Amino acid sequence: MPRHFRHHFGNLSRCPNCGTLRITKLKHRDRIDPMNRGFLNLLERMLGGVIYHCKFCRLQFYDRRKSATEKPQPAERRDLATPAE
């Protein structure tokens, strides 16, 4: 029995339909592909989530978490002249 609500928990953004991590971020909504409807999607949109698109099921949805394909921010470079603390 599928439990799609479990895809809304965790550190990374997942497709709410199929659960894949291979999603892309969109700049604006595509009018051709379907949008995920439901309370959790509305809540994510109201909390400032960005719009993502699933490559496999072609579903658009909002999520506030980062995707697995986004590159992490590089850490600050340490000055090599100063000793390590």
Share of helical residues: under 10%
Low-confidence stretches: none
Strand order across the biggest sheet?
1-2-3
Instruction: Give the biggest sheet.
Output: 3 strands, antiparallel
- Classification by helices and strands: mainly beta
Task: Name the helix and strand elements from N-terminus to C-terminus, one letter apiece.
Answer: EHEE
CA gyration radius, whole angstroms: 17 Å
Give the DSSP E fraction (strand runs of 2 or more residues). Answer: 5-15%
Round the mean pLDDT to the nearest integer and report it.
81
Query: What's the overall geometry?
Result: globular
Number of helices: 1
- The tally of strands reads 3
How far the N terminus sits from the C terminus, by CA atoms, comes to: 53 Å
Oligomer: single chain
Q: In words, what does this structure look like?
A:
This protein has 85 residues and is mostly beta strands. The chain has a domain at 24-68. 9% of the residues lie in helices and 14% in strands. It is built from one helix and three strands. The longest helix is centred in the middle third of the chain and has 8 residues, at 39-46.
Give the SSE map.
Layout: E1 23-25, H1 39-46, E2 50-54, E3 60-63
Antiparallel strand pairs: 1-2, 2-3
Labels describing this entry:
mainly beta, three-stranded antiparallel β-sheet, 9% helix, globular
Task: Produce a short descriptive summary.
With 85 residues, this protein is mostly beta strands.
